[in-house]
Amino acid sequence: MNAVLIVDKPAALTSHDVVNRIRRILQERSVGHLGTLDPLATGVLPLVVGNLTRLAQFYTSCEKTYEGTIRFGFATDTYDAEGEPTSPARDVAVSLDQLRQLASRFRGTIEQTPPPFSAKKIQGVPAYKLARKQAEVALKPVQVEVKEFEILELAGCVVSFRARVTSGTYMRSVAHDMGQLMGCGAHLASLRRTAVGEFALADAYTLEELEAAVKTGETNDIFIHPRKLLPQFPSVTANEEMAARIRNGRPVNLPELSQSRTVKVFAGQRELIAIATRVAGTLFHAKIVLAAESGRVIA
Fold first, then answer.
1. Which residues are catalytic?
2. Strand 204-205 to strand 3-9: parallel, antiparallel, or no bridges (unpaired)?
3. Would you say 1 and 199 are in contact if contact means Cβ atoms under 8 Å apart?
């Protein structure tokens, strides 16, 4: 089975927990995700199945959009609501205008230190494993881009926001750093991812919905149509001779549709068989071949 599907991840599950659930539901071992979501977070978690796991390399730098809330008054060791408070909670007087001015400092390209409880590695060891052992976690700041960060509403000490960021940006760190600048501490109270690249909540299904669809055999709607994948690359439909050459890893002349360096190659309307790069003129060579060994593709 080759497929892409979008799970609306529930809270309390890790991204790996969701992958394992989908493996059991689809009875397919080869399943991966396109970007980790913390257990606290919910929302868009794209999964790639079968040979389409090889598409993950094209999604490493895709944008992500979030909605969430930040609680001011105390920080936590994980920078979110699941952590232990690092100071006593206290009421703080903050205004919407004040927070919106503060948020402007986080827009654009910024230096951000990842949370100590994160998957970032220190000498090959995930930081969260060191943090759990109360070992020193010294993560270096990294450059990230916050393309949008809008403060929406304020209710007491809790503010709601919407953000669009580049890959590798931690909204937990944004919340923590805002609290540090305010001098009162803060942490991420809730987070919902509403989009990853071209995938949005409208494409997402709950685990229960996915399981029910598979049991009834009504799976046509749950998989993303392959032609909607990687919209930055134009689609080319290969004839049988072209498709055979591509499946065998041989260069092929494809129909000239654009001057794009990279194209998606289809056999028919639904079978994505390769991502190919231009060699010269109309001559392309497959960067990756996605054709299923069995010749049966579900996507």
1. 38
2. parallel
3. no
Domains and CATH numbers, the chain: 3-61+198-224 (3.30.2350.10), 64-190 (3.30.2350.10), 227-289 (2.30.130.10)
- pTM of the model as a whole: 0.88
Q: Which amino acid is at 159?
A: V
Categorize the per-residue pLDDT at 296 as very low, low, confident or very high, splitting at 50, 70 and 90.
Answer: very low
Q: Are 161 and 150 in contact (CB under 8 A)?
A: yes
Complete DSSP assignment for 213-228: HHHHT--TTTBPPGGG
Q: Which of 10-14, 30-34, 216-220, 232-236 has the lowest mean pLDDT?
A: 216-220
CA 5 vs CA 26, 138, 227: distances in Å: 11, 36, 13
Measured CA to CA, the distance from residue 201 to residue 291 in angstroms comes to 28
> Are 253 and 243 within 8 A, CB to CB?
no
What Rg value do the Cα atoms of the chain yield, rounded? 22
